[in-house]
CCS capsanthin/capsorubin synthase (Zinnia elegans), 499 residues
Amino acid sequence: MEALITPLSTPSPSLSHKHYSSSFSPLTTSTCSFYFPKPNNYLTHRVHTSKYGNFLDFIPENKSTPIDDVDINWVDPLRKARLDVIIVGAGPAGLCLAERVARQGVRVCCVDPDPLSMWPNNYGSWVDELSSLGLDSCFDKTWPMACVHVNEHKTKYLDRPYGRINRKMLKMLLLEGCVSNGVKFHKGKVWKINHQEFESSIVCDDGNEFKASLIVDASGFASSFVEYDKPRNHGYQIAHGILAEVEDHPFDLDKMLLMDWRDSHLGNEPDLRVQNSRLPTFLYAMPFDSNLVFLEETSLVSRPVLSYKEIKSRMVARLRHMGIKVKRVIESEKCVIPMGGPLPVIPQPVMGFGGTTGLAHPSTGYMVTRTLALAPVLAEAITECLGSTRMIRGQPLYHRVWNGLWPIERRLTREYYRFGMETLLKLDLEGTRSFFDAFFDLNPEYWHGFLSSRLSLMELAMLSLSLFGHSSSASRFDIVTKCPVPLAKMMGNLVVESI
Ligand SMILES: Cc1cc2nc3c(=O)[nH]c(=O)nc-3n(C[C@H](O)[C@H](O)[C@H](O)COP(=O)(O)OP(=O)(O)OC[C@H]3O[C@@H](n4cnc5c(N)ncnc54)[C@H](O)[C@@H]3O)c2cc1C
């Protein structure tokens, strides 16, 4: 695949130097050079007095520093310069699309309350996904293998490298790409979007108004600019994550822990155990060195969303059982990702991209690398209409861009991934364990392809048959008894989508 950020696939030395002069150094495969600010007596004291006997009361120490190494170009609101595309949001989706579209000579402005702030989320990805986009340099650290504890007695080792994305590096590369391709920025929150026949406008919280032929909403999951005409019956991934300094931990440093479904830590917590056996959560862990680890207790998918308090209580019990004593919390995150649900109305005057438009994998919640990979696809549809040789605006433009991002084949395969999510929603702890036991026994082409959203409908059908073949009899019973309703819904949706 073509490199995503051609001019910048390797960061310049000056850039790396400046970039890491903030509060943290990068992690690499061989070394881990996090800079730890001096422990604070107050926090140390709370280790002993916290009512959880643990880390939940700790205040995350990392103060996010803005990116001051890139000089972005600001739009002059007084000049009322003609714009082709306005992109709302400077998250991964907004920036990678802005860079791609501007590269074709289209005039782009990206609007965000703080375009230079650090992205807050911790992103992980399979190494091959980011590498295929020419972005290998954007990992903090990679692990040659991943592992899954199916239960107390069974562990699977996955021969597929995994990495933690260096979000500052990725954002800087995208910003530099934007700068070199002429993207302009405006600092503000978009309040309102108005449409006329061939033109749309945004109104920002600072009173400024900008006009363009196309508005792309890349403002994340909470956006209300993109419209839906079907009930939004999402599942939700919810997780509590911390990057922590610990006294010690039991993880192998050469493996990341993708999922730990063990529940022995709940032996003395009957209420939590009963709940967990119905609505299971797992631990995800990225060990950076013997004292530094990212830990996340995760509900893969639930509907209604599992309580955050419950997740944190389970995490406390798990870490205590594993003998992990948290000394300091460097970062913490509450992760809530809407998964599955219907696609927005296609087409409509506001184009959506990223979290606003159903790009999150319905069965896993992963989205970053898929968004990066699809940015050129959407950019091409936009430039076909608004590039120098063509001037297609209004309804034909909306039709082209929406169908460019969501052609029928992609909509149909998404229905299948939604079916995967609906199936997972029906599984209890035992069912979930059996599912992943069989899933990770599949031919790697299937499970890699499924997790990376790159299987065709035919391949997905083959995967289903193969999964059934690899399943235990209990799991087959689950499939036969619990899948018919989601299967029938999927078939119905496939028919509706393909008409
Ligand atoms: C905690 C967490 C962890 C995640 N981890 C992973 C992971 O490991 N791997 C993975 O693949 N995916 C992960 N995801 C899922 C997904 O990739 C992220 O949510 C990703 O950040 C979505 O990108 P985005 O650009 O669509 O939206 P966002 O990253 O949410 O960016 C939206 C931007 O728009 C701005 N904005 C919002 N409203 C307005 C407005 N009205 N006007 C102007 N600007 C506005 C925001 O300030 C923000 O800068 C995670 C999600 C969360 C919440």
In short: The pocket of flavin-adenine dinucleotide is lined by residues 88-94, 111-113, 119, 121-125, 189-190, 218-220, 333, 335, 337, 354-355, 360, 365-368 (CB under 6 Å). The longest strand covers residues 326-339. Confidence is low (pLDDT under 50) at residues 1-52. The chain has three domains: 6-12+65-139+163-231+342-406, 25-61+235-339, 411-498.
